[in-house]
Amino acid sequence: MREAFSDGAPEVDLARIINFDSFRAYKWLITIAEPNQTLYGFLRDNGVDLNHVINLLEGAIALCEWSIGNGPKEECIGLAVMEKDGVTPLDAVLFSMREPSRFETMLGLGAVLGGGEIKNPATYWAHQPCRLLRTPLAWLREGIAACAVILDPLRAKPILDWAPGNLAAMDEAHADALVEMGIVDPKRLVVPVVRRAA
């Protein structure tokens, strides 16, 4: 190992650091993931193509009780948050079934749900932007491909900065919120045009 710092400290290969808590969270999620009619009914009722998302998530989706933001325990849906490589577990995100806009990560490590889609050049085929969604439920509803959800704005900024194409907000209010957080360059952010009936 070569010395990279002037103080003589050895260089650390960050690619070789393994966070065992990430693997434990993934193992927990896979262990509790089982066929569940409550989970499936909720997802179907919210426009999610079950076969598609379960296949893409390789079964890493589960119904569980969780306390979001130190609130009371409630029924939540847990999803694996993977590294940009799409293979290495990083964290788990849990969202409320009662109020899907409420969500949090288990370990505080996950920055983006669908981070691999932001880095994937195929997402931007034919100059299409990567769609940034507001919630994990919206991510499931949209089919996971070519979209992502910001879980931790501070940690997400470097990932968004390296996106090889434009990013799309859901609407003007969402775009304003992303720009105000300082995580997206306004020059790279597009907003869909909403056509109003005459």
Please render the helix and strand layout as text.
Elements: H1 20-32, H2 37-45, H3 50-56, E1 61-66, E2 74-82, E3 89-96, E4 103-105, E5 112-113, H4 115-119, E6 130-133, H5 136-141, E7 147-150, H6 153-161, E8 167-168, H7 172-181, E9 189-190
Parallel strand pairs: 6-7, 6-8, 8-9
Antiparallel strand pairs: 1-2, 2-3, 3-4, 5-7
Explain what this protein looks like in three dimensions:
This protein has helices spanning 20-32, 37-45, 50-56, 115-119, 136-141, 153-161, 172-181; strands at 61-66, 74-82, 89-96, 103-105, 112-113, 130-133, 147-150, 167-168, 189-190. It has a 5-stranded mixed sheet with strand order 5-7-6-8-9. A 4-stranded antiparallel sheet has the order 1-2-3-4. It is α/β, with parallel strands linked by helices and 198 residues long. It has one domain. A hairpin with a 6-residue loop joins β3 (89-96) and β4 (103-105).
